[in-house]
Specification:
Layout lengths: L1 E4 L1 H9 L5 H8 L4 E5 H12 L18 E3 L3 H9 L7 H12 L3 E4 L11 E3 L1
Parallel strand pairs: 1-2, 1-4, 2-3, 4-5
Length: about 120
């Protein structure tokens, strides 16, 4: 299974916070490929710089957790811009677009994201 972590799930993983057992198992499974979008790194960086979020710099090294970085392509950006307006957060819209474009299962607890056609694994 190919997974894409929502930003809050990446933060929970880094903080070893509790999440749904099936999400934890899927992320931990070495047979699955786990992606972290550049959008999540960007979002964390902005919130951290504004003092809204306190993180250890280690969170930016996604490969340390054996996660794969997922860059944002022009096609991803175009798709994100054309999605229905279920969610106003541009970072979350990008994650949905990337999940759709790259055939990834989006690991999230955000109920607004579930309004899109992306495959979801509840966190």
């Amino acid at each position: 299974m190919n997974l894409l972590l929502d930003t809050h799930v990446l933060l929970w993983w880094a903080e070893e916070r509790k999440m749904a057992p099936q999400a934890f198992t899927a992320i931990s499974n070495p047979d699955n490929v786990v992606y972290v979008s550049a959008a999540s790194i960007w979002e964390i960086g902005i919130k951290s710089a504004r003092g809204k979020l306190e993180v250890d710099d280690a969170i930016f090294d996604v490969r340390a957790d054996d996660f794969e970085p997922l860059p944002i392509t022009h096609a991803d950006a175009r798709l994100a811009g054309s999605l229905p307006d279920h969610h106003r957060d541009p970072f979350d819209r990008m994650l949905v677009a990337q999940a759709l474009a790259h055939n990834l299962v989006l690991v999230t607890r955000d109920p607004q994201i579930q309004l899109y056609q992306a495959e979801i694994l509840p966190a």
